[in-house]
Each structure stands twice: as structure tokens, then as C-alpha cells.
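Archive transcription. Copying these from loose printouts into the bound notebook so they stop getting lost. Printout 1 of 2:
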Amino acid sequence: MKRILNLEGAINLRELGGYPTKDGTTIKYNKLLRSGDISNLTTNSLNYLKKYGLKYVIDFRSNQEQQTWSDVTSDFYRIYSDPVYPLTGNGDKLAGAINHGDYSYLGLIYQSVVLDKHGQEAYRFLFERLLNNDQDHQSVLFHCAAGKDRTGIGALLILKALGVDDEIITKDYLLTNLMYQDSDEIEATLNDENGNQDINKMNMTKGDLESITSVFEAIEHYYGSFENYLDKALGIDQTKLAELKQIYTE
């Protein structure tokens, strides 16, 4: 299966299906899409997404971004405005309190977002929509402008909740770096002999992994565990987490 969907008018559009979980299951295809700007989707792209089963679009961009570069509307999906910024600022104080000089700048920003009250409200809304997406052949697309930071945080929270390993989560995050390179280079880097795209072929440094795991470390520092964070910050208790896994894994 193609992980990178090169649709006209979309930036950094990617499939999250196919990743293995620690439970021995796999994330279902045609359920989860992450993306950057989709304000220029063409008719052909819309036809593809309709067949794909797109039902819900979650827009993490600011109100100004949404007004300036509005998502293309269509009758087969509903768009939800869910700005991640502006943050309230409490996450900065919390993240700074556990930084011992070894976390990357990007890691600190991401920590601030996941610990911030407004940031948490935005991702709580995302998870509520994910629970609503409980019908077969229906999918959720969540996006920001570049599909890297606000969308990247959403993806790492979803993948972690579904039981995907940190290293795989990091490699999925790093695919954004490839997306802004030449498309032929992407194909040469990822494709196996059957034309499937395999992120295990990606090179990842120790620093890359640390920038993502530092986010989970911050969450565990303040909430005791990632599961407790899901419950207290995002409203996903054990029952809802089981529902999520039922909807999105097989």
C-alpha cells in the first residue's frame, strides 16, 4: 500500500494504516489520514478521497489561516475547525521545568503543546471525532499547514494511543522531511520490490528518536503514564481507549 498519497492540491498527505502495534494488531487502512494544506484539492483528488471514504476533516490551523486558505468543501465530508494555537502558556512553564539541557528545541515546543490546556482541548476534540468515526469505509483526515508540527503531534498521540512503538512513530513523523524533497527520491528511498512504501528503510538518528520520546517523557512526568494522560487530558478512559482500538486496529 502507498503511505504517501500524491494527490493534486494536497501537501504532505499520508496514510496511517498498516503500522503494527505492540498488541499484535495492525492499524486499519482507509481510516486515518494526516496532511498539510488541502485548500487546492482538484476534482480528481476529491474523487479519490470520496472513494477512499473520507468523512471528517479536522483543521488544526488558526482562524486566520483557515480564512485565508480555506479547505475545499464537498458534500461527502464535514470540516471541523480545531485550532491548536494560541496556547495558554502553562505548557511552556511545565515543559521548561523538566528540561535538563538534553531535550531538543523542537521537543520542548511539542512538550509545551501537549501539556498546554488549550493544546489539550484541541487534541481532545480530535479524539472525540475519532470515536465518532466508527463506521466501516469511513475515514478521518486531520491537518495543519505543512502537516508537520500540529499534525505531527496529533499523529504521535494517535499512534501512541493505539500501541505503536516509539521508533515507528518517529519514522512516520520524519517522513515529512522526505515529502519536501524530490518525489523520485521518495520512491527510491521507501519502495520495496512490490512497490509498497516501507518506512523501515528510513535512516533515523538517536536525536530524532529523542525529540519524540521526550514528549512522551514529559507526559509521563506530569501524568504518571500515557494512559493517564489520555484519560485526564484528552478524555479517553480505558473504555474509550478500547473503543478506539476496536475502530482503528485489526
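Printout 2 of 2:
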Amino acid sequence: MEALNHIDLASLLDTLVSLAAAFALGAMIGLERQYRQRTAGLRTNVLVAVGAAVFVDMANRLDGHQGAVHLAAYVVSGVGFLGAGVIMKGDGNVRGLNTAATLWGAAAVGACAGADLLLEAILAALFVLAGNTLLRPLVKAINRQPLDDRSSEVSYLVCVICNRQRQKEARERLEALLAAANYPVSAVHVYPFMGNEVQIFATLLSTAVDSDELDGIIERLTAAPAISQAYWTASTTE
């Protein structure tokens, strides 16, 4: 019978408005994610927003605004664990950070709706959408720019692939060409490749590397009898 005592139609209507707002705004964020075929799409963002709204609204009803504030902190922590589940690391790349951040934003939208801050929830949803849409062209434009070799913090790797039996000869040729170009090597690693071949990776110490000069080194490495393939790669570090 205790459940019947908690029935309050006015409060129930307030909860309905909060959850409907969280559902609609979460769907607005999720539609953009679904359109771009992201891991967390329409349903996930809606459920995160509605779930956050339910918890905050419940705390608001049971313990007032102070309870809602306390529970909102737990919502943030819980969604943090959920976001960690969509972050993947492999091949030197970290993927899913934007998806995790979007889920975090959806939870914030839901929490605002659950706390009856409907205008704040709408603003938050619009800013999350803006971050995922309006900033996309800017990010693409920046990523299309060539790396400024002399001002960016860049890590350079030179790789050669050779027969296992000619590994020593290939390594000596690699180190000799890099030394001749005044590119000191910080580390050399050898890894198995396909069949009877190995990969030799040389990490360069220098941060002022000339891309054209590295291309020339690669051409000379490829021409060496002991080396079947050669290439170089650069990646920015934070």
C-alpha cells in the first residue's frame, strides 16, 4: 500500500514532461549519430538521456533538490564507465572518444530534463549537436593540412622489410643512410613479417625532418638488394 501513498498526479505529470523532453532531445542527438553509423546511435543516446532523467527526477521527488544534486554526480560516474566501453585502442589509434563524449553529453541533457531545467536541457542538446556537426568541417579542414615538419611535435618511423637472412645487411644500410642525412636513431626494433621476412623499424630522434629528404632515403633503401620494401610514417604526439 505504500506505493499508493506515493501516487501524486501533479508530480507524475511533471515526470512525464521531464522524460518526454529527455526522450526527444536524446533522439535528436542520437539521430545524428545514427546517420553517421556510430557505435552509439539513436537508441543508445535516447536510453542514456532518459535513464539520467529518471534517476535525477526520482532523487528530486524523494529528497528534493539536494538529493538530485547528489545523484547527478553518480550519473556522471556511471556514464563514464559506459563511455569507456565504446573506446577502443588498436594499431596505435584510439577510437570512440567522440562517441563516449556524446554519451556523456546525452546524460547531461537527460539530467537537466530530470531536474526540470527544460530550457537548459534544450540548450545542452543544441550544443552537443553543434559539436558533432558544425565543427566537423573545421576538423576535416585541419586534418587535410600537411604536417609542418619543423613546428609540429612529430614522431618519425622508417621501416624496411627484408629477408630474415639478410637482416643485418638491411639494418646496416638503413642506419648508414640515416646517419649520412644527420638523422640520429633513438631505437631500432625488429618484428616478424610474412613468411621468412622481417620488419625493421627505426625511430628518429630529430624533430626537424625534411619530408622530401626522407623520400629520397626510401628510394635508396628500396634500391638495395637486401631490402624488398621500405617506407616512412609520421604521427603527431601530445
